[in-house]
Specification:
193 residues, alpha+beta, Protein Binding, DinI Protein, Chain A, 4-stranded mixed sheet, 5 helices, 68% helix
């Protein structure tokens, strides 16, 4: 599962905010007029669009891509060296270079251990990347969730859902742009410090 799909899934499940009581709205003017459904003020966020344009998410994704590439290059380099050693070993067997069968077997065992260590390193890298991806997903989710809660203090929605959970929604209910603008502004302010 890649970082975007993990993040999208986490955000989709976390973003549903319910508020128990409707109150009269004395909030500041809004960019879009809310549509009332049975007295509820509802909005939605397009998580895919949000992630595609959220600078913090993009920075984390770029960092993950760099790490994946570095791991892949390191493993490829080690694997190439090991393959060369195996080829040299096979040539030595073919040309009867080893002084004894035991010496050839000892080299074979050493190469097998080296191969096993490379497999374990690859698994370790995969686990590290998955753990970091999960931690990044959690960071994104918490950041968005906290911002949506702050945003809602001045906008008074009763329900904010993700577009992924909807079959149809009036685009007038879409607050993705406002949330994205606020998230990017907050991230840029934090990055400047």
């Amino acid at each position: 599962m890649n970082f975007k799909s993990v993040t999208s899934f986490v955000l989709s499940t976390v973003m549903v905010l319910g508020f128990t009581q409707c109150s009269q709205q004395a909030a500041a003017p809004q960019q879009q007029a809310p549509i009332a459904v049975s007295g509820l003020k509802i909005a939605f966020i397009d998580v895919d669009s949000l992630l595609a344009n959220y600078a913090f998410y993009q920075d984390l994704a770029e960092e993950m891509t760099r790490k994946e590439e570095n791991y892949r290059l390191a493993l490829t380099e080690e694997n190439n060296k090991l393959q060369k050693e195996y080829a040299d070993h096979q040539n030595k067997i073919k040309n009867s270079v080893y002084s004894s069968v035991e010496r050839a077997q000892s080299e074979e065992n050493r190469l097998q251990k080296k191969n096993q260590a490379l497999i374990e390193k690859s698994e370790k890298y995969s686990q590290e990347l998955m753990a970091e991806s999960n931690a990044n997903s959690q960071k994104i989710s918490e950041t968005v969730d906290n911002y949506v809660k702050e945003y809602n203090k001045t906008h008074g929605y009763d329900l904010i859902v993700t577009k992924a959970s909807l079959l149809f929604a009036n685009e007038a209910l879409n607050i993705t742009a406002q949330i994205l603008d606020g998230l990017n502004a907050a991230y840029n302010n934090q990055s400047d410090k």
